[in-house]
Design goal:
The chain is an alpha/beta fold. The protein folds into two domains: about 5-185, Rossmann fold, CATH 3.40.50.720; about 190-359, N-(1-d-carboxylethyl)-l-norvaline Dehydrogenase, domain 2, CATH 1.10.1040. Helices cover about 50% and strands about 15% of the residues. The protein contains 15 helices and ten strands. The protein has helices at about 10-20, 35-45, 65-70, 85-95, 120-125, 150-155, 165-175, 190-210, 220-240, 255-265, 265-275, 280-290, 295-315, 325-335, 340-359; strands spanning about 5, 25-30, 60, 75-80, 100-105, 110, 120, 140-145, 155-160, 180-185. It has an eight-stranded mixed beta sheet, with helices on both faces. Strands 6-7 form a two-stranded antiparallel sheet. Helix 4 links the parallel strand 4 (about 75-80) and strand 5. The mean pLDDT is about 95. Keywords: Lipid biosynthesis, Lipid metabolism, NAD, NADP, Oxidoreductase, Phospholipid biosynthesis, Phospholipid metabolism. GO terms for molecular function: glycerol-3-phosphate dehydrogenase (NADP+) activity; NAD binding. InterPro entries: 6-PGluconate_DH-like_C_sf, 6PGD_dom2, G3P_DH_NAD-dep, G3P_DH_NAD-dep_C, G3P_DH_NAD-dep_N, NAD(P)-bd_dom_sf. It comes from Pectinatus cerevisiiphilus.
Length: about 350
Amino acid sequence: MAKITVIGAGAMGSAFTKPIADNGNDVRLWGSPLDNSIIDSLKAGKNHPKHNYPLPKSVKFFYHNELAEALKDTDVVVMAITSDALGTVFEQVVPYLKPGMLVGSVTKGFNYDKSGKIVLLPNILAERLPSRLKQQIDFVFVAGPCKAIEVLWGVPTSVTYASTNIKAAVKLRTLAETEVYNIDTTDDVTSTELCAAMKNAYCVGLGMAEGFPQQKGGFLHKNTKGALFTYAVTEMGIFAKALGGTLGPVLGLPGMGDLELTGEAGRNRTLGEAIGSGLSASQAIAKMKENDITVEGYPAIKFGYLLMKSLEKEGKIPSASMPLLSGLYDILYNDAAGYESIKKLVKLCTAANISNRKM
């Protein structure tokens, strides 16, 4: 048994308490200032407001001003904060870290590091460690097809834990794995986190194919979606290798697995479906903002596109080999017509795929 503190009481952070509590650990859930109403409900014995489902009874709940108490004598910290706030909140946690502790993260995406460079989230955490802890703290990153509510329901689930120190990934797996929450491990953090971020971007494109019947006489576009899925996986592989990763996670749970799940439902698909139905990207995004819906895939497309261009300048990747990402950027940020653009992209991707096989 270990003392595990989850930082962030949102959908995934709260869901993560289920397997670790079921495994007999001492689990604490800390809410950010935005989570006060959630902590209120949980302390009152009510369901989690976002899930309308109870958390394990053994979990202890803490408000944002109780961080020291939540982290007292803890062995493992799990970050479950939105990507834009991850660095800021982790800076509050750092003073409580001690050599030998594990830091896990279920947060996915890109952000700018302190020098202004676009990086994956492992860099955001690592650069905030003081020099005395840089060789003393191991990070473990969680990715794969995992809907938060299904974890709470106890649905059979498989995810990947990635760490540059494979022993750390195995240690956290030992603390979290149950009869229904299954975990594999890898030391390829780069590919794992690249897939975790980019699958949101590509799922916007998959969603467009689901929306096309609304402007094309009701005719399904499953052929189109199947092609887009294939080319999304191909481009994630090209991207991962350019960053120094391998194809293992791309062809596994973090890549293909999570892409399939996220493409079936969720906010990224909803945005794509709205564009596919005939709205411009700006109209679709405005509509979602009116309903207070944040879509991770929207900034992920921009971050991914800019990172691809940066890698192209370094001679690590030709942007011509990733037409789908370039096309999605054009649709989302330049209001290019969704249907006509996707029609052209399928042809471009087919040609690029033939060229990529010759590389």
